[in-house]
Design brief:
The protein is α+β, with helices and mostly antiparallel strands. Helices cover 52% and strands 6% of the residues. It is built from 11 helices and 4 strands; from the N terminus they run E-H-E-H-E-E-H-H-H-H-H-H-H-H-H. Strands 2-1-3-4 form a 4-stranded mixed β-sheet. The longest helix is centred in the C-terminal third of the chain and has 24 residues. It is globular and about 45 Å long. The relative contact order is 0.17. The model has no long low-confidence stretch (mean pLDDT 94).
Length: 263
């Protein structure tokens, strides 16, 4: 048990399934589960992330704010690794297994897919789910989230998607992003579930992370959007979600531990 990997994650206020909600951190959580690596979760509120990272020697990675999660600390090697793609590369190098997150020669492709998915899907979901995200955070994290996001985007969160018309327009763009990625995947073989064909890789975790966040943060009144996504594009995203269901889980200790990290 002493050789556990620690995954630092941003907690919700307990109002959603298994506390974890952030798509960036779900990428790493999925990667750890895919490789069957024992790990534990330490919950860190938004205002404490910078102090945490500095205290454990994690590199700054953010653009909106300097220090972000995910970060892992591997007690077996002593390594502290920031950012989901770098973490995936570290896990492959340190823990070769049946699942290779970034197969040799695909690093550029995997990194490009991650960036494109953020542009085509992530930003639309960010604005569409601004208020629901704010409402699922603990008070200190909610205040920090509001301040930093409104400062960066120069617009109050309430103005990101103030009405049904704006939300529906963002959802339409989100579906168009999924449809475009669906088309690209089919170039590799029609009917394939995974981005690289027969085996899941890091690029799949990027998409599944958005699915995990969407499922947890959509208000009840908008659950029809999830149902719509599950049937578009020949049901590809439902098949992908089903394939990853066994890995979409928070460690038992993490689901029971309600204490947050403090300096």
């Amino acid at each position: 048990m002493s050789d556990l990997i620690t995954l630092y994650d941003i907690p919700s206020n307990g109002s959603i399934k298994d506390i974890s909600w952030s798509p960036n951190i779900w990428k790493t959580r999925l990667a750890l589960n895919m490789k069957g690596l024992s790990h534990k979760t330490v919950w860190v509120e938004y205002p404490d992330i910078e102090n945490l990272c500095k205290s454990i020697g994690a590199e700054p990675t953010g653009s909106m704010v300097p220090y972000t999660l995910p970060v892992i600390h591997d007690s077996k090697t002593g390594a502290v690794v920031s950012e989901s793609f770098k973490i995936a590369q570290y896990l492959d190098k340190t823990y070769p297994s049946a699942v290779t997150l970034v197969p040799q020669g695909t690093g550029t492709f995997q990194a490009m897919i991650a960036d494109i998915a953020v542009q085509k899907i992530g930003f639309n979901l960010l604005f569409m789910l601004g208020m629901p995200t704010l409402q699922l955070l603990p008070p200190r994290s909610a205040a920090y989230y509001r301040h930093t996001r409104e400062l960066f985007f120069k617009k109050k969160i309430e103005e990101w998607a103030p009405g049904e018309e704006e939300k529906n327009a963002l959802w339409k763009k989100t579906l168009e992003g999924f449809a475009e990625i669906h088309k690209w995947i089919d170039f590799g073989g029609e009917g394939k579930v995974f981005m690289m064909g027969d085996s899941p890789t890091f690029s799949d975790t990027v998409i599944v992370a958005f699915l995990a966040t969407l499922r947890r943060t959509l208000p009840e009144s908008e659950k029809g959007k999830w149902e719509e996504l599950m049937v578009v594009d020949d049901g590809r995203w439902a098949k992908l979600a089903d394939a990853f269901a066994k890995w979409e889980a928070v460690d038992e200790e993490g689901t029971k531990n309600t204490k947050f990290w403090s300096l």
